[in-house]
Design a protein that fits this description.
single chain; 140 residues
């Protein structure tokens, strides 16, 4: 997932970094799919994993980080970083609790206090997760 940082393939804050991260997430999702096959039928899944890892290693060494796997990755669900997800959730909870205490300290009328808390919680979630997360949640 951090291949673009280690080899300095993209400049910081450029759009190429986002493209490389998206491709790495798809490749990792494809690897996780192949690893699931180890439980069902280990022998072919192990061969497939070995072939994928060799292809990834060769292309990484050649500097082709944007094309680590040439398989069709359109049907693959991208892998998500568990650490990043946990940090985002912790940040969202911390900021939401902070806004609740801030709202309580403002001595607002009791009739609007609940609306302000709910609105600030929605604002925090949009700030932390972005508008794309809301759109993806609506699709489910």
């Amino acid at each position: 997932m951090r291949a673009n940082r280690h080899r300095a393939f993209a400049r910081p804050f450029s759009h190429h970094g986002a493209v490389l991260r998206d491709h790495a997430a798809l490749v990792l999702g494809r690897i996780q799919q192949a690893e699931e096959g180890l439980y069902r039928d280990p022998s072919p899944a192990l061969r497939e994993l070995a072939t994928m890892w060799l292809t990834i290693a060769e292309r990484y060494v050649d500097g082709r980080v944007g094309e680590l796997l040439s398989d069709d990755l359109s049907s693959v669900k991208p892998a998500k970083s568990r650490i990043r997800s946990a940090l985002r959730a912790a940040l969202a909870v911390t900021l939401t609790v902070g806004t609740v205490f801030l709202t309580a300290s403002l001595d607002l009328p009791q009739a609007i206090e609940g609306y302000v808390i709910a609105g600030s919680a929605v604002a925090v979630l949009l700030l932390v997760y972005g508008a794309r997360a809301v759109v993806e949640l609506r699709r489910r």
